Amino acid sequence: MIYKIIIGILLAALVVFGPDWRYVDGFIKIDHPAMLGWLKLSTYGIMMAVGFLTANFLLQKEFRRLQYDEKLADRILIGAIVGGLLGSKIAFIIEQYADIHSFSQMIDMFFSGGGLTWYGGLIVAAGVIIFFIKREKLSALHIADVVTPMLASGYGFGRLGCLISGDGCYGQKCDLNLPVPFCDSFPRGAAPWSEIVRQYGDPGVLVYNTPLFEALASFSFFVLFWALRKKEFPLGVKVFSFLILHAIVRFLVEIIRLNPENVFGMTQGQFISIGLILIGLTYIGKVFILDKKA
Fold first, then answer.
1. What is the rounded CA–CA span in Å between residue 263 and residue 248?
2. What angle, 0 to 180 degrees and rounded to 10, lies between the N-to-C axes of helices 140-165 and 237-255?
Protein backbone atom coordinates (compact mmCIF):
# COMPACT_ATOMS: atom_id res chain seq x y z
CA MET A 1 0.00 0.00 0.00
CA ILE A 2 2.80 2.40 0.86
CA TYR A 3 4.28 1.99 -2.63
CA LYS A 4 0.94 2.89 -4.23
CA ILE A 5 0.77 6.05 -2.10
CA ILE A 6 4.31 7.04 -3.10
CA ILE A 7 3.53 6.40 -6.78
CA GLY A 8 0.36 8.48 -6.51
CA ILE A 9 2.25 11.40 -4.97
CA LEU A 10 5.01 11.24 -7.59
CA LEU A 11 2.59 11.09 -10.51
CA ALA A 12 0.48 13.92 -9.10
CA ALA A 13 3.65 16.00 -8.78
CA LEU A 14 4.49 15.25 -12.42
CA VAL A 15 1.07 16.41 -13.59
CA VAL A 16 1.06 19.60 -11.51
CA PHE A 17 4.75 20.53 -11.39
CA GLY A 18 6.06 18.56 -14.35
CA PRO A 19 7.93 19.87 -17.41
CA ASP A 20 5.97 22.86 -18.56
CA TRP A 21 6.55 24.99 -21.65
CA ARG A 22 4.21 27.73 -20.50
CA TYR A 23 1.85 29.62 -22.75
CA VAL A 24 2.85 27.78 -25.89
CA ASP A 25 1.08 25.43 -28.22
CA GLY A 26 2.54 22.34 -29.80
CA PHE A 27 1.64 20.81 -33.13
CA ILE A 28 -1.69 19.96 -31.51
CA LYS A 29 -3.31 23.37 -31.15
CA ILE A 30 -4.44 23.47 -27.51
CA ASP A 31 -4.17 26.05 -24.77
CA HIS A 32 -1.19 25.38 -22.52
CA PRO A 33 -0.80 24.84 -19.68
CA ALA A 34 -4.10 23.03 -19.19
CA MET A 35 -6.27 24.76 -16.58
CA LEU A 36 -8.41 23.18 -13.90
CA GLY A 37 -9.77 26.12 -11.97
CA TRP A 38 -6.77 27.67 -10.22
CA LEU A 39 -4.61 24.65 -10.99
CA LYS A 40 -2.20 24.59 -13.93
CA LEU A 41 -1.54 21.13 -15.34
CA SER A 42 1.55 20.15 -17.28
CA THR A 43 0.48 18.48 -20.52
CA TYR A 44 3.93 16.92 -20.81
CA GLY A 45 3.63 15.72 -17.21
CA ILE A 46 0.23 14.20 -17.98
CA MET A 47 1.72 12.15 -20.82
CA MET A 48 4.62 11.07 -18.61
CA ALA A 49 2.16 9.97 -15.93
CA VAL A 50 0.14 8.00 -18.50
CA GLY A 51 3.34 6.33 -19.68
CA PHE A 52 4.41 5.38 -16.16
CA LEU A 53 0.95 4.08 -15.21
CA THR A 54 0.71 2.03 -18.40
CA ALA A 55 4.15 0.55 -17.77
CA ASN A 56 3.25 -0.30 -14.16
CA PHE A 57 -0.02 -1.98 -15.19
CA LEU A 58 1.67 -4.12 -17.84
CA LEU A 59 4.66 -4.93 -15.64
CA GLN A 60 2.43 -6.14 -12.82
CA LYS A 61 0.57 -8.28 -15.34
CA GLU A 62 3.87 -9.84 -16.43
CA PHE A 63 5.08 -10.33 -12.85
CA ARG A 64 1.88 -12.23 -12.04
CA ARG A 65 2.50 -14.48 -15.04
CA LEU A 66 6.11 -15.05 -13.99
CA GLN A 67 5.10 -15.46 -10.32
CA TYR A 68 7.26 -12.59 -9.11
CA ASP A 69 6.41 -10.25 -6.25
CA GLU A 70 4.16 -7.53 -7.72
CA LYS A 71 5.53 -5.05 -5.20
CA LEU A 72 8.79 -5.15 -7.14
CA ALA A 73 6.90 -3.68 -10.11
CA ASP A 74 5.92 -0.73 -7.90
CA ARG A 75 9.50 -0.29 -6.70
CA ILE A 76 10.73 -0.39 -10.29
CA LEU A 77 8.22 2.33 -11.20
CA ILE A 78 9.35 4.51 -8.28
CA GLY A 79 12.97 4.03 -9.36
CA ALA A 80 12.06 4.90 -12.95
CA ILE A 81 10.27 8.11 -11.95
CA VAL A 82 12.80 9.40 -9.41
CA GLY A 83 15.93 8.15 -11.16
CA GLY A 84 14.63 9.12 -14.59
CA LEU A 85 13.83 12.70 -13.67
CA LEU A 86 17.00 13.16 -11.62
CA GLY A 87 19.24 11.69 -14.31
CA SER A 88 17.59 13.59 -17.15
CA LYS A 89 18.00 16.87 -15.26
CA ILE A 90 21.66 16.21 -14.45
CA ALA A 91 22.37 15.28 -18.07
CA PHE A 92 20.61 18.42 -19.31
CA ILE A 93 22.69 20.61 -16.99
CA ILE A 94 25.88 18.92 -18.22
CA GLU A 95 24.80 19.60 -21.81
CA GLN A 96 24.14 23.27 -21.00
CA TYR A 97 27.17 23.72 -18.74
CA ALA A 98 28.88 26.23 -21.05
CA ASP A 99 25.87 28.55 -20.72
CA ILE A 100 25.69 28.33 -16.91
CA HIS A 101 27.49 31.24 -15.24
CA SER A 102 26.55 30.84 -11.57
CA PHE A 103 25.54 28.24 -9.01
CA SER A 104 22.15 29.91 -8.55
CA GLN A 105 21.52 29.71 -12.30
CA MET A 106 22.30 25.99 -12.20
CA ILE A 107 19.87 25.48 -9.29
CA ASP A 108 17.17 27.43 -11.13
CA MET A 109 17.74 25.27 -14.21
CA PHE A 110 17.57 22.08 -12.13
CA PHE A 111 14.20 22.99 -10.63
CA SER A 112 12.75 24.55 -13.77
CA GLY A 113 9.89 22.86 -15.59
CA GLY A 114 11.73 22.13 -18.83
CA GLY A 115 15.05 20.57 -19.68
CA LEU A 116 15.10 16.77 -19.70
CA THR A 117 17.62 14.53 -21.47
CA TRP A 118 16.31 10.99 -22.00
CA TYR A 119 19.64 9.16 -22.02
CA GLY A 120 20.65 10.64 -18.67
CA GLY A 121 17.34 9.56 -17.21
CA LEU A 122 17.79 6.06 -18.64
CA ILE A 123 21.23 5.64 -17.04
CA VAL A 124 20.30 6.82 -13.54
CA ALA A 125 16.92 5.07 -13.55
CA ALA A 126 18.63 1.84 -14.63
CA GLY A 127 21.05 2.13 -11.72
CA VAL A 128 18.25 2.61 -9.19
CA ILE A 129 16.17 -0.22 -10.66
CA ILE A 130 19.15 -2.61 -10.68
CA PHE A 131 19.59 -1.88 -6.97
CA PHE A 132 15.98 -2.94 -6.29
CA ILE A 133 16.34 -6.04 -8.47
CA LYS A 134 19.56 -7.17 -6.80
CA ARG A 135 17.90 -6.87 -3.40
CA GLU A 136 15.40 -9.49 -4.61
CA LYS A 137 18.30 -11.68 -5.81
CA LEU A 138 17.00 -11.66 -9.39
CA SER A 139 18.88 -11.30 -12.65
CA ALA A 140 19.01 -7.66 -13.76
CA LEU A 141 19.26 -8.68 -17.42
CA HIS A 142 16.26 -10.98 -17.12
CA ILE A 143 14.11 -8.23 -15.58
CA ALA A 144 15.42 -5.82 -18.24
CA ASP A 145 14.11 -8.22 -20.89
CA VAL A 146 10.74 -8.32 -19.11
CA VAL A 147 10.65 -4.52 -18.92
CA THR A 148 11.64 -3.99 -22.58
CA PRO A 149 8.08 -3.54 -23.99
CA MET A 150 7.30 -1.00 -21.27
CA LEU A 151 10.54 0.85 -21.98
CA ALA A 152 9.41 1.23 -25.59
CA SER A 153 5.89 2.39 -24.71
CA GLY A 154 7.20 4.80 -22.07
CA TYR A 155 9.46 6.52 -24.58
CA GLY A 156 6.55 6.71 -27.00
CA PHE A 157 4.34 8.47 -24.46
CA GLY A 158 7.21 10.83 -23.67
CA ARG A 159 7.48 11.81 -27.31
CA LEU A 160 3.74 12.38 -27.48
CA GLY A 161 4.25 14.72 -24.53
CA CYS A 162 6.83 16.61 -26.60
CA LEU A 163 4.32 16.80 -29.45
CA ILE A 164 1.50 18.16 -27.30
CA SER A 165 3.54 20.62 -25.27
CA GLY A 166 5.48 22.01 -28.23
CA ASP A 167 9.04 21.78 -26.98
CA GLY A 168 12.17 22.07 -29.11
CA CYS A 169 12.25 18.55 -30.59
CA TYR A 170 11.26 19.75 -34.04
CA GLY A 171 12.41 18.92 -37.55
CA GLN A 172 13.86 20.77 -40.49
CA LYS A 173 11.80 22.22 -43.31
CA CYS A 174 9.69 19.48 -44.84
CA ASP A 175 10.80 18.94 -48.45
CA LEU A 176 8.59 15.90 -48.98
CA ASN A 177 4.91 16.02 -49.81
CA LEU A 178 3.85 14.47 -46.50
CA PRO A 179 0.36 15.10 -45.12
CA VAL A 180 -0.44 16.69 -41.77
CA PRO A 181 0.47 15.72 -39.07
CA PHE A 182 3.71 14.20 -40.43
CA CYS A 183 4.64 17.69 -41.55
CA ASP A 184 3.13 20.65 -39.75
CA SER A 185 3.82 24.22 -38.67
CA PHE A 186 4.30 25.58 -35.18
CA PRO A 187 2.00 28.37 -34.00
CA ARG A 188 3.41 31.71 -32.91
CA GLY A 189 4.68 31.50 -29.34
CA ALA A 190 5.66 27.83 -29.41
CA ALA A 191 9.16 27.08 -28.17
CA PRO A 192 10.64 26.29 -31.63
CA TRP A 193 8.79 29.08 -33.48
CA SER A 194 11.46 31.80 -33.22
CA GLU A 195 14.24 29.38 -34.24
CA ILE A 196 12.23 28.24 -37.26
CA VAL A 197 11.64 31.86 -38.29
CA ARG A 198 15.37 32.59 -37.86
CA GLN A 199 16.34 29.61 -40.00
CA TYR A 200 13.76 29.90 -42.77
CA GLY A 201 12.26 33.39 -42.51
CA ASP A 202 8.74 31.99 -42.84
CA PRO A 203 6.66 31.66 -39.65
CA GLY A 204 4.29 29.23 -41.34
CA VAL A 205 6.88 26.89 -42.85
CA LEU A 206 6.06 23.19 -42.62
CA VAL A 207 8.61 21.15 -40.66
CA TYR A 208 9.03 17.43 -40.04
CA ASN A 209 7.02 16.31 -37.03
CA THR A 210 9.93 14.39 -35.51
CA PRO A 211 8.30 13.68 -32.11
CA LEU A 212 5.48 11.89 -33.92
CA PHE A 213 7.95 9.81 -35.96
CA GLU A 214 9.74 8.66 -32.80
CA ALA A 215 6.47 7.99 -30.97
CA LEU A 216 5.13 5.81 -33.79
CA ALA A 217 8.40 3.88 -33.97
CA SER A 218 8.43 3.35 -30.20
CA PHE A 219 4.86 2.07 -30.10
CA SER A 220 5.73 -0.28 -32.98
CA PHE A 221 8.63 -1.61 -30.90
CA PHE A 222 6.24 -2.03 -27.97
CA VAL A 223 3.92 -4.18 -30.10
CA LEU A 224 6.87 -6.26 -31.32
CA PHE A 225 8.42 -6.95 -27.92
CA TRP A 226 5.07 -7.46 -26.22
CA ALA A 227 4.27 -10.13 -28.82
CA LEU A 228 7.66 -11.74 -28.10
CA ARG A 229 7.40 -11.58 -24.31
CA LYS A 230 6.63 -15.31 -23.94
CA LYS A 231 9.31 -16.38 -26.39
CA GLU A 232 12.58 -17.63 -24.93
CA PHE A 233 15.71 -15.73 -25.95
CA PRO A 234 19.21 -15.69 -24.46
CA LEU A 235 19.50 -13.39 -21.47
CA GLY A 236 19.65 -9.69 -22.39
CA VAL A 237 18.97 -10.13 -26.10
CA LYS A 238 15.55 -8.46 -25.97
CA VAL A 239 16.64 -5.31 -24.16
CA PHE A 240 19.80 -4.89 -26.26
CA SER A 241 17.80 -5.48 -29.45
CA PHE A 242 15.44 -2.70 -28.39
CA LEU A 243 18.36 -0.35 -27.69
CA ILE A 244 19.74 -1.05 -31.18
CA LEU A 245 16.37 -0.41 -32.86
CA HIS A 246 15.78 2.71 -30.77
CA ALA A 247 19.26 4.02 -31.58
CA ILE A 248 18.78 3.43 -35.33
CA VAL A 249 15.53 5.41 -35.29
CA ARG A 250 17.10 8.19 -33.24
CA PHE A 251 20.10 8.37 -35.60
CA LEU A 252 17.81 8.67 -38.64
CA VAL A 253 15.50 11.21 -36.99
CA GLU A 254 18.50 13.38 -36.10
CA ILE A 255 19.18 13.74 -39.84
CA ILE A 256 15.93 15.69 -40.33
CA ARG A 257 15.96 17.39 -36.94
CA LEU A 258 16.97 21.05 -36.67
CA ASN A 259 19.79 20.35 -34.21
CA PRO A 260 23.28 21.83 -34.03
CA GLU A 261 25.97 19.60 -35.54
CA ASN A 262 28.91 18.83 -33.26
CA VAL A 263 31.74 16.86 -34.85
CA PHE A 264 32.10 15.35 -38.34
CA GLY A 265 28.69 16.75 -39.28
CA MET A 266 26.88 14.66 -36.67
CA THR A 267 24.84 15.60 -33.62
CA GLN A 268 25.29 14.53 -30.02
CA GLY A 269 22.26 12.24 -30.36
CA GLN A 270 23.85 10.49 -33.34
CA PHE A 271 27.08 9.84 -31.47
CA ILE A 272 25.13 8.36 -28.56
CA SER A 273 23.11 6.28 -31.02
CA ILE A 274 26.27 4.87 -32.60
CA GLY A 275 27.55 4.00 -29.13
CA LEU A 276 24.32 2.18 -28.24
CA ILE A 277 24.32 0.29 -31.54
CA LEU A 278 27.92 -0.86 -31.02
CA ILE A 279 27.24 -1.91 -27.42
CA GLY A 280 24.11 -3.80 -28.45
CA LEU A 281 25.76 -5.55 -31.40
CA THR A 282 28.77 -6.47 -29.27
CA TYR A 283 26.58 -8.05 -26.61
CA ILE A 284 24.37 -9.93 -29.07
CA GLY A 285 27.42 -11.05 -31.06
CA LYS A 286 28.98 -12.36 -27.86
CA VAL A 287 25.82 -14.28 -27.01
CA PHE A 288 25.24 -15.88 -30.40
CA ILE A 289 28.83 -16.35 -31.60
CA LEU A 290 31.36 -16.50 -28.77
CA ASP A 291 29.14 -18.20 -26.20
CA LYS A 292 28.11 -20.90 -28.70
CA LYS A 293 31.76 -21.63 -29.49
CA ALA A 294 32.65 -21.90 -25.80
1. 19
2. 30
Give me the percent of the chain exceeding a pLDDT of 90.
30
Residue range of the domain that includes 281: 2-293
Quickly count: other Cβ atoms within 10 Å of residue 25's Cβ: 21
The Cα–Cα gap between 285 and 269 comes to: 24
- For the stretch 140-166, pLDDT in tens is 999 999 999 999 999 999 888 888 776
* 3-class DSSP state of 80: helix
Alpha carbons 68 and 194: distance in angstroms, whole number: 51
Structural domain count of the chain = 1
pLDDT band (50, 70, 90) for residue 17:
low
> What pTM does this model have?
0.83
Angle between helices 70-95 and 140-165 (to 10 degrees): 60
CA angle 8, 13, 19 (to 5 degrees): 135
